[in-house]
Amino acid sequence: MAINSGRDKVVPGQLVWANVQSVMTMDYLGTETFKAFDSLGKKDVFDKERVICVSDHLVPPPTPAFATLLNQWREAVKAHEIKYFYDLGRQGIAHQIMVEQGHVLPGTVSIGTDSHANTYGAVGAVGNAVSVSDAAVAMATGKSWFRVPETVKFHITGKWQPWVMAKDLSLHIMGMMHWNGHLIYKTIEFDGPAINDLAIAGRMTLCNMTVDLGAKNGIVAPDEKTAEFLKPVQKGNWTPIMSDADAIYEKIYEVDVTNLVPTISMPDKLDDIKRVEEVQGRKFNKAFVGTCTNGRLEDIEMMAKILRGKQVHSDVNFVLVPASTQVYLDAIRAGYIADLVEAGVAVDTPSCAACAGIHTGVAGDGDIVLSAGNRNMKGRMGSKNAQIYLTSPAVVAASALTGVITDPRSL
Amino acid sequence: MIIKGKSWVSDDYVMSYDMVLQQYWTSPINKEENAKFIMAGVREEFNSENAFKNEGYTFIVARHNFAGGGKSIEHCVTGLMGAGIKAVFADSFARLQFRNAINYGLPFITCKDVADIVRTGDELEFNPETGEIKNLTNGQSKISVPVSPFVAEVAEAGGIMDFIRKRIAEGTVDELR
Prior knowledge:
The structure holds two protein chains of two kinds. Chain A folds into three domains: 3-147, 2-Layer Sandwich (Aconitase, domain 3), CATH 3.30.499; 151-259, 2-Layer Sandwich (Aconitase, domain 3), CATH 3.30.499; 265-410, Aconitase, domain 3 (2-Layer Sandwich). Chain A has helices at 27-38, 64-79, 94-100, 132-141, 166-177, 193-196, 200-208, 224-230, 276-279, 291-294, 297-307, 325-333, 336-343, 393-402, and strands at residues 15-19, 23-26, 51-54, 85-86, 109-112, 126-129, 143-147, 151-157, 187-191, 217-220, 251-256, 263-265, 273-275, 286-289, 317-320, 345-347, 368-371, 387-390.
């Protein structure tokens, strides 16, 4: 925040204008964002290569009204000569695209008009969700105002156990800290040996859900994995920025993943967290893997490992929506998609899908959904009369085999 | 400028997606229109046209995580403004709506345990300069966390859009830091 606002130092609580690396907007709010930008009195956006446009919520359009919205959106993007437009055919969930295509870089600040922009922390960037007006202002000026947050640290140690994923850690922390609870407006820094062991995909899952803790952002310091991940895709140069050796944390929490087990969030309340073994055997009828939280290659690989050569239970409808076209293609090339389709998993083209409650497998009255997404409040995936359990892709896949909630370690 | 008026005391965790129901998330931003169904999902009695607005409240007094739930929709703030709300006091606010409130010039004022001294219907008096929230009905008062000068500048300009419009016209965007 200090570097990006041209200062030597900043203090928590201070409001500063900082330069942004990228501004993301997507189909759902993008047309309104461009309209707001147009009203500011500037013809061109601050940098046509750093305003990133993605179609993710509404594609492929499920209704004529959404098709019309998408047409307006495409016109707006075109009119502003945006270089990076990830439209249907090249689409993905915006947050996946921003990291995967190197639009966010370590030590920089990026913003987007969708809440899970916190995902960018996986590569050592600050990612923040903002409103349409904020995005319009940043498109015009290359800047946004920020309140400098207090920082807490999660020091994660121990050895990851088989079938335990970053999502389990995310949900475990949710249970510790509560949904929108003690971490409101704070930065969460994740470090420690168990974080170093995580691939970028797992770090994305972890940072992604910090918004649901109420935090301002989550961040993992860049390391060799980050550099290797970004090298072929990065749009710009970066220098690693690490926490000061004498950094002050409001609080440091310790978690040892050696004892972490498959974890699940109960319907309607994200922080009502249980061990999967406590609810083993409960019936459900819909399974969903996808989203900016768990729609990546590593997640699909885990599903394929469990479902390969087997069959999804006949009482379960299983939908997989890869997080991006790149992920989809990689999963096809690795053979995972064939394994999963053979097992009885329905695969759809990348989008936010049912997680936004808009299309592709939304929940109806009485549905009990086992989802690898990020939110489970009433109505999130469609009907208010559906129940949503949130858990890891490993648990969703294992449960889909048996037709009841199943700890993958018990298979 | 001292603000006076009637208050509504909410529960903890008033969520943004209950303040503005999903069918209105893509509505155009317009204070009067957005006010019609503001708070419709928070309480059953507010779920009819202008129901919240017709109560004539000036202040909302809340506790933890007001306007939470991770939605960036600006209708929460414009809807409240259209319904006549002049300030919201709470123990804590969700960051997206805190931003929106600053951007539109609606004071979201942090004040610990403010809901302890107010009941729905009480007359309050708020002095933005001193931060004092005085309950005229029962005589109790609290001092809130002071707001940054930037917040007042944006409010004075009529919101972030006008604030930036003016700077673009003057060529003073680069001075922002």
